[in-house]
Known about the structure:
It is globular, with a radius of gyration of 23 Å. Helix 11 (167-204) runs antiparallel to helix 20. It contains 24 helices and two strands. Strand 1 and strand 2 (150-152) form a beta hairpin. It has one domain (2-482): Hydantoin permease (Orthogonal Bundle). By secondary structure, it is mainly alpha-helical. The chain has a two-stranded antiparallel sheet.
Amino acid sequence: xxxxxxxxxxxxxxxxxxxxxxxxxxxxxxxxxxxxxxxxxxxxxxxxxxxxxxxxxxxxxxxxxxxxxxxxxxxxxxxxxxxxxxxxxxxxxxxxxxxxxxxxxxxxxxxxxxxxxxxxxxxxxxxxxxxxxxxxxxxxxxxxxxxxxxxxxxxxxxxxxxxxxxxxxxxxxxxxxxxxxxxxxxxxxxxxxxxxxxxxxxxxxxxxxxxxxxxxxxxxxxxxxxxxxxxxxxxxxxxxxxxxxxxxxxxxxxxxxxxxxxxxxxxxxxxxxxxxxxxxxxxxxxxxxxxxxxxxxxxxxxxxxxxxxxxxxxxxxxxxxxxxxxxxxxxxxxxxxxxxxxxxxxxxxxxxxxxxxxxxxxxxxxxxxxxxxxxxxxxxxxxxxxxxxxxxxxxxxxxxxxxxxxxxxxxxxxxxxxxxxxxxxxxxxxxxxxxxxxxxxxxxxxxxxxxxxxxxxxxxxxxxxxxxxxxxxxxxxxxxxxxxxxxxxxxxxxxxxxxxxxxxxxxxxxxxxxxxxx
Length: 518
């Protein structure tokens, strides 16, 4: 019965995979374009994302550099929050989504395909992506709305306001994100369960069959735990991510730093490989350079999600004093995700040399996570130290997957408020998210694949990109004016009039309340 249901679902969504691939790769899937040196390896979506980042960086006066320290000050400032969550909590919530399994799987895959030089272009895309993240976070703050003791906002909210305040636009963007998130939840849920199983295997030295009672018990615990957190609302999710994100980031960074320290002599090889692969590829105009560039840019943008609008909901949830404050915080999120976490993964893979030498062919055939763990083993060969490192890396992978899962559930709830703020409706969204995750985990344990359904997550991603970037341009004047007001720092409150509008209701109300108090 279950197998019949899975086959039916896959058949219904069979067209998603090819359509997603076509849109993500357009126009590289046309021979005339693919023959263009370098450019022929870069799809329009990547050019759009990077080009927008470059444009916004110049228009904002490279705010990701000039206000980097200010962003850190905002994060470290102690603040009592009555409504919404603190800027730091919003940072952790967004990081929960950004820092996911892709920080290990995606980077390893990018190096496997494009070589170490892909890391350099990942850094470049992240640098400009910081400006794009700033843009969408500021818009999320400008047009956020208050709901009880929380703030809701993000792409569906600023998209509606900027495109003529049409109700259907907000609903369409909300539905698109919810469907995208729901299609990602099964895979993330199974990543959590499988990594917990792997932790058990490392700790006990025993193997566990996927359909064993061990995996079913883990699955039940994960589903129930997630449901308890999800039904607690955005604030409860943020309390959990406040604790988990710093732990997983610190554990991962320390683990990799230890690996770097015990392989200190390989550091020069890392930098030589990265910069040599980025600037001195074999046959620059023979396609290799384009592959290196494309892999680095794709992985950087798919990891930090700058420009996709999928992180903007966390920015809106923060109780910021000025919209631009949270823009700088969002910019720092991209820095942490790509420049720090992804680079840590790059160090392990490149220094291990596994992608070179006699074992390169066997390494290339592995799945992405085994590729990474094989690289860890190469850096700690034949020692008990290897088991400890493998355990810590797997633990981080588990936490990466779980915080991403929580983020998707929480963000789905936030955007659902654009459709209806009814408690019953929000509870339905929470239930559907948990059910989808549980169904996906069960299918994976049973050895059944929902590949065509999950392909919708890729399709949803590119559709969100193609929707969000044009909206950022429509709202760019608002962000530029808000930024000028923030930089001026003349003591005047931020209101609708600052950006030449009359619909920034939250900020107008806040300014009235401050005047009455004074």
